[in-house]
Amino acid sequence: MKKVIFVVGSTASGKSDWALRLAEEFHGVIVNCDSVQVYKYLDIGAAKPTKEEQARVPHYLLDYVLPPQEMTAGQYERDFHECLKSLPDDKPIFVVGGTGFYFMAIEKGMYPVLPVPAEIQKQVLDEMAEAGGPERLHAELLQADPVYGAKIALADHYRIGRAIELIRSHGKTLTQIQAEFEQTREKFPYPLLKIGPDWEREVLRTRIRERTGKMLSAGLIEEVQGLLDKGLAEWAPLSSVGYKETLQFLRGEISREALMEEITKNTQQLAKRQKTWFQRDKEIHWLSGATGFPEARALVEKFLTP
């Protein structure tokens, strides 16, 4: 039976280093679960493992999506399970990344994306644009699906509209769709351990600033300019942190000094969101980023012992 270890955490937390060391020691493989590292040509800004690091341990789902393709959580989920089926049973699989939504997709599955006819989409969009439209649609949602409607703010026009579209086109509320999904979804098919390095906020802030400086010194600006030269300015992953600020710099919208500050600030905000997401999962063993690696190693050894 394959055994899977999730190595999760905020950006710049050192999770990739932990996964590499653990996979090397326990003769395992690494499967990437970072939504930017899946893309070809995004190396420095994505903090992708170096060619030397990749040579130490087999890596999968890394550096394989070519422009202008765009990865979705649903496609990643399919790729992940196909990948795991192809891997040998006797090697531990270390899944590493900071994209919480992808981890949720591969562990718990995703709700089905039900199609909505174009005429109903237009109908709801037109009603939303009318005076008092959001209030009327929200009231309709509350009447049809009081459980879901009570969770959605009046200002969240997208979710109100999407819920109404599903009710009108399929006769099902989101509460019903979610309940059906919970009854039919399959459990994660492999034994699973979850670990993650954790840092005090100020220490992580320092690590983020240092990493940003290293990225710029390593040629982040040149990397982004090369992508622009390929005509990829509108490619979706270039809106991710590190790349979008560098695009702003190259367009003359911010200075070289501001570039460092903007990337650092936005990376800190990303790290905060990642930590909030992962902390909802009570199965994760959080260990000190500074001193917790021996404990992580012991947890993995115990998990892998027959």
Give the structure's gist in a few sentences.
This protein is α/β, with parallel strands linked by helices. It has 14 helices and six strands.
Walkthrough of the structure:
With 306 residues, the protein is of the alpha/beta class. Helix content is 54%, strand content 9%. The chain has 14 helices and six strands. Helix 2 (51-56) links the parallel strand 2 and strand 3. The mean pLDDT is 96.
Considering the chains and any ligands shown, give keywords for the structure.
306 residues; alpha/beta; Rossmann fold; Histone, subunit A; 2 domains; six-stranded parallel sheet; 14 helices; 6 strands; globular
Helices and strands, with pairings:
Blueprint: E1 4-8, H1 15-25, E2 29-32, H2 51-56, E3 59-60, H3 73-86, E4 93-97, H4 100-108, H5 118-129, H6 133-144, H7 146-149, H8 157-170, H9 174-184, E5 192-198, H10 201-218, H11 220-229, H12 243-250, H13 256-278, E6 285-288, H14 293-304
Parallel strand pairs: 1-4, 1-5, 2-3, 2-4, 5-6
Helix pairs in contact: 3-4, 5-8, 6-8, 10-13, 11-12, 12-13
**CATH domain class name of the largest domain:** Alpha Beta
Instruction: State the low-pLDDT regions, or none.
Output: none
Count every beta strand, where a strand is a DSSP E run of 2 or more residues: 6
The value of Rg in angstroms is 22 Å
Share of residues in strands: 5-15%
Number of spatially distinct domains? 2
CATH fold description of the largest domain? Rossmann fold
